[in-house]
Amino acid sequence: MKTIFVESLSDIERNVDTLINAIHSDSQDRQKFADWVKAGAVFYPYQFGRIIAFAPSRFIGYKDNSRENHERLIANRTADGKDTNPVISKIVGSKNAHDTRLEQAFQRYCSLIGVEPYNKKRSFWTSSRIVHAFNSQFSAIDDIDETEVGNDSPEYRRRMAGSYVRDQEVRKQVLKRANGVCEYGGCVTFKKENGHTYLEAHHVISLSEQGVDKHSNVIALCPNHHREAHFGEKWQMLQDEFIQMLKKLAS
After folding, report:
1. Average pLDDT, stretch 146-150?
2. Secondary structure of the chain in HEC code, one letter for each residue
3. Domain end residue (candidates: 134, 153, 172)
4. 60/70 Cα distance (integer angstroms)
């Protein structure tokens, strides 16, 4: 069977969607796709919902790729980044290169999806979309850390996602308001060793839209609802509900 490479950006992003949607689902294919990410060397960063995900060249370079097709390519020893890298570079209009910020984001993404990447040098393609995500939008990967809320420094807002200065006072205000209960579902989660109920702080509106961050832009969620807000199929609906809830809390 003849190997057919991607021919357009839409071909690439169709493959990216196949891979990323599988990873962020309950599908039995999830681990297989995640393992392909951890083994990759060259990546196409992609904004998925409110996170920056990474798709390996060796998967996204073959037209209409799937788990079954990719396993066949691997078995036939025809899945090779040396073939897909120049094809993708020609389509996106730039060559892949090492990028420290993207490497850091990749490491966080691997931690998020539960894999430890191979110890190898990696390179990435960049796009205006990804640059914008770094420069003007917070990353949900970092937002998951319960303490990373709040900042009013313009310099801070210019940094890449993941460089948030932790504002303990903002976090304390939000958790005090929640009083140990998830502000979305009303559920009570487990208790930490200090006896306090475990909740996570979630930014509702990105700093690029919100400007100065404050407790009225943060909602306390249980771990399940927090991850659903970022990775669930109804994340946009939840965002809209959170905004309405915060408006009521502020009134």
Report:
1. 35
2. CCCCECCCHHHHHHHHHHHHHHHCCCCCCHHHHHHHHHHCCEEEEEEECCEEEEEEHHHHCECCCCHHHHHHHHHCCCCCHHHHHHHHHHHHCCCCECCHHHHHHHHHHHHHHCCCCCCCCCEECCCHHHHHHHHHCCCHHHHCCCCCCCCCCHHHHHCCCCCCCCCHHHHHHHHHHHCCCCCCCCCCCCECCCCCECCEEEECCCHHHHCCCCHHHEEEECHHHHHHHHHCCCHHHHHHHHHHHHHHHHC
3. 134
4. 10
Question: Which has more confidence, 101 or 215?
Answer: 101
Q: Are residue 77 and residue 157 in the same domain, yes or no?
A: no
pLDDT at 215 over 60: yes
Place of tokens 């900042």: 151
| Rounded Cα distance, 3 and 87, in Å | 13
pTM across the whole model: 0.56
Q: What is the dihedral of CA 143, 113, 128, 92, to 10 degrees?
A: 180
Query: The tokens of 19 are what?
Result: 């891979």
Residue 221 is part of which domain span?
145-250
Do the strands 200-203 and 123-124 form a parallel or antiparallel pair, or are they unpaired?
Answer: unpaired
Considering the domain architecture, whether residues 117 and 83 belong to the same structural domain is answered as: yes
The structure tokens 């290169």 sit at 97
